[in-house]
Amino acid sequence: MARVKRGVTSHAKHKKVLKAASGFRGRRKNTIRAAKAAVDKSMQYATRDRRNKKRNFRALWIQRINAAVREHGLTYSRFIAGLIGAGIAVDRKVLSDLAITAPDGFAALVEKAKGSLPANA
């Protein structure tokens, strides 16, 4: 049976890891053992932060909607309750964008939300 030399595949694997570590500092960018650990950890951070990014954007949209709604004399929670009561299904990303780019359209939504709220609250 012929002898198998695996230098080619090892070199390719190392090259892939070192390319991914190209922006790192110190030994982490050019020593395979340190680079592999650093790249693995960086992939964990990337996965975690893709989830957190969605969370952060939702929080930003809610803050923007709250600020815009308070100019019309409502709070965010009352506004959302009014929209649900009026049967208007618009997500927070679109509401935030409307509040910034089309204040007149947003004001119309606020009025509809106010109309569907109970008068005593």
Automatic annotation (TrEMBL):
One of its GO terms (biological process) is ribosomal large subunit assembly. GO terms for cellular component: ribonucleoprotein complex; ribosome. SUPFAM superfamilies: Ribosomal protein L20. GO terms for molecular function: rRNA binding; structural constituent of ribosome. InterPro entries: Ribosomal_bL20, RIBOSOMAL_L20_CS, Ribosomal_protein_bL20_C. The keyword tRNA-binding does not apply. Keywords: Ribonucleoprotein, Ribosomal protein, RNA-binding, rRNA-binding. It comes from the Bacteria. The keyword rRNA-binding applies. This is Large ribosomal subunit protein bL20. Gene3D superfamilies: 6.10.160.10, Ribosomal protein L20. Binds directly to 23S ribosomal RNA and is necessary for the in vitro assembly process of the 50S ribosomal subunit. It is not involved in the protein synthesizing functions of that subunit.
